[in-house]
Amino acid sequence: MKRYALLLVLMGLILTWLPQPVQASNGAIMVLEIEGVINPFTARYLERGLRLAEQRGAQLIIITLDTPGGLESSMREMVQALLEAPLPTVVYVAPQGARATSAGLFVLLAADVAAMAPATHVGAAHPVPLGVEISDVMDEKATSDAAALVRSVATQRGRNAEWAERAVRESLSVTADEALEINIIDLIANDLDALLRELDGYEVAGRTLRTAGVLPQVQAMNLSERFFHIITEPNIAYLLLSLGTLMLLAELADPGLSVAGMGAVVAYIIAFMGLGSLPLNWAAVGLLALAVVFFVVGLLTDTEVVLSVAGLVPFILGSLLLFAPFTPTSPAAPVVRVSPWLIGFMAVAMLAFSYLVLRAILAAARRPPQAGAQRLVGMTGVALTDLMPTGQVRVDLQDWSAVSVAGDIRAGETVRVASISGVRLYVERAPSAAPEA
After folding, report:
1. What distances in angstroms separate CA 263 from CA 246, 293, 362, one per listed residue?
2. 161: domain CATH number?
3. Which of 109, 147, 173, 319 has its CA 20 to 30 A from that of 22?
4. Confidence at 135, pLDDT banded by 50, 70, 90
5. Same structural domain for residues 248 and 217?
6. What domain count does the chain have?
7. Which residues contact 376 (CB under 8 A, 6 or more apart)?
8. CB distance 416 to 430 below 8 Å
């Protein structure tokens, strides 16, 4: 009986530790925060938040949104997740000054309730690749596909499908007040508390929301989601790529898989993980690789100044074109670019590093050893005994066993150390002491 009683107590404790479902009438409200470029990790974050909200019996999930756009594939995943969400969803463009452009427009339209803060805007930017001509057919194909999606999503949610399509085709943008007027959003709220007051009593999919007095629970990104979301920021990905290049140059200047070499590998891996979620121009990556070749050749051939300066040309061009693909980009994608200030800083850093730091490393590597037995190589001494071919020599006031590598040497003759192996010197007759013909 005692065993059964103990078992019942343990089961009771376990049940109290398990999360208890909350009834929808008095359910919790979960808040997700999406900021920056939309990528696979923001899509995964949204899907995880929706599952968690359902498990906790939340009555509502609110997604605060501030984005310039992102990958079309990730945007479609988020739209599908919102359309199939098992509980009411609200997408709220906030805080004031935020935006929901390009892919953000699709995400906003897919919510059950679309809301915006004052001084925010929504719309679509139709990016055109920098400095290249693209096929009108390819451009129209990508645009028509995105227009069909945004029209169907807007129709599904009872919003202005005509304007939504024009936003994609003509890159239209509107303010929060204009969006409310033309039936793109459902309400405007100054902040999250005001939004909850506005939502109280709101009818969504046959449910009446009870949000007054409910403290929202913010579900932040977990560590891995936050990490990958940070590295997909264009400037961060570019900085990692540049730092990897600097460490690669340091490793090539002093080979041996040092900290610089391992750091370069790690920086490149993380950089390309981030670049994989951005519209990448592989020709620009080729220009950056060419710049590295110039830097390396300059270091190894003692022409640092000429080739390092020459390497700056493909480095700067590659940096400027890094996020300007030659193929047409989706209207859901944002216009991303590296800050010109960051490009200028990294160009100067690359030049200074290759010319000053790496030149000093190479000079030190080429200098003869300053300590240990290897420092004796090139020094002269005197033979204490005949070297036929082995014997004794005195070099730098120390006696050494020696082997003649160029004929017999008589005692008292001047010798020069050619090499060393262990504690034995390999010597030859010093040029000044060579016998006359």
Report:
1. 10, 19, 20
2. 3.90.226.10
3. 109
4. low
5. no
6. 3
7. 395, 396, 417, 420, 425
8. yes
Calculate the CA dihedral of residues 282, 283, 287, 292 and round it to 10 degrees: 30
How is residue 318 written in tokens? 């590659």
What tokens does 267 get?
Answer: 């920086």
Q: Are residues 154 and 258 in the same domain?
A: no
Q: Report DSSP state, residue 322.
A: T
Task: Check residue 250 and give its pLDDT.
Answer: 74
Residue 299 or 282, more confident: 282
User: Which CATH number covers residue 415?
Assistant: 2.40.50.140
Closest listed residue to residue 118, CA positions, set 63, 191, 192, 197: 191
List the single range of 75-79, 95-99, 251-255 with lowest mean pLDDT.
251-255
Q: How far apart (Å, rounded) are the C-alpha atoms in residues 342 and 233? A: 13
Tokens of 151: 């029209």
Instruction: Report phi then psi at 357, rounded to 5.
Output: -70, -55
Do 58 and 180 lie in one domain? The reply is: yes
| 309 CA to centre of own chain | 27
Residues spanned by the domain of 420:
373-433
Q: Give the pairing of strands 99-101 and 60-66.
A: unpaired
